[in-house]
Design goal:
Layout: H1 27-35, E1 70-72, E2 78-80, H2 82-103, H3 117-137, H4 139-145, H5 150-171, H6 180-194, H7 201-212, H8 218-232, H9 239-261, H10 271-292, H11 294-298, H12 307-312, H13 317-321, H14 327-351, H15 359-378, H16 392-406, H17 414-419
Antiparallel strand pairs: 1-2
EC number: 2.5.1.32
Family: Belongs to the phytoene/squalene synthase family.
Protein name: 15-cis-phytoene synthase
Length: 422
Amino acid sequence: ARGVVSPTSELCNGLGLLQTNKFAGLSRSRSLLRNKRIKNVGKRHKCNSCNASADSRSKLGRKSDVISRVVANPTGELALSSEQLVYNVVLKQAELVKEQIKAKDYNEAKPPDTVVPVTLGLLSEAYNRCGEVCAEYAKTFYLGTMLMTPERQKAIWAIYVWCRRTDELVDGPNASHITPKALDRWESRLEDLFNGRPFDMLDAALSDTVSKFPVDIQPFKDMIEGMRMDLRKSRYQNFDELYLYCYYVAGTVGLMSVPIMGIDPESQATTESVYNAALALGIANQLTNILRDVGEDARRGRVYLPQDELAQAGLSDEDIFSEKVTDKWRYFMKKQIKRARSFFDEAQQGVTQLSSASRWPVSASLFLYRQILDEIEANDYNNFTKRAYVSKSKKLVSLPVAYAKSLVSPSRNGALSKALEV
């Protein structure tokens, strides 16, 4: 079984990361730190609309109101749609941020006196290791984090590494040995680190991060649920099912990150709308991953496409396994790409609401991932045997464009302000 999920074993998580138990002694001081929870870093978000009713969802992006959406469950009874279930998580995280804002002005976080110098030294080493992993596996994003304040920078690294380790459980070299019970142990370990009891070096970095920022544990648990879904499910009957999966494995990252990124003090958007945009970016990225990797997933026996929409286009799993690009496939792919772009559009409207130092890495991620959809089209929708990717030259062109757009403050974006009216 994969060692990374066992709190009683030495860790070797498939990334080749050197693990250590030397943070076991952090429990007492981290618990004290947790009790003296430090507020988010940066200036206070002055948006008066943050006190708006939770029912006043922003008009960002798509026109549909998820609050009113219901679906029929197998028994014929009406139930909440996946979008509404996810939106409830958004509201919970946004409310946590509001409470933090009301409780205390944001100040640059300082280590509490309860942490002894040797602990601080080990913690610094932990964050540095997280930065190294981020630099190795997410080069463009890592470059963008260089613009952030040191505290935010380290926190984003810690979250990135935890997400990567979690993903590696079911998609790494030892994935065949992972069981639901192993994921249960990983979730128990998550709860421990949120309670100030990290098991290893990388856990300690995240434990410190969640003690300083208003980060809720639910998106982290939901990501683990996405890993469970990958163990038991390889088909999705409709987009409602696929949406929930995309939230679990990618949309959660947006909800984890916004408290770290911070909201621009000039923003007039509701806190909920900013979280909705972050959620949309995660959904868009995952849908893009799915469309890029259709052939690769099919060779693993997986089809991450809505079965009902395939049928409506006159397609089936067998058409995917045959790896033939037909007019029916092109028609189907055009609709899927259009949907992914609509989520990118929603996300784009929210990027300018983030703190100025956090916009570039998010803008760069959005720009580069969106271009993968262009490359699928350029490949004549052959995502069976051709892998769509953005060339280095195109990346070099996109980065300064993303940076220029990140300089636009919310107060200067009149069109956005109108779109965010509630």
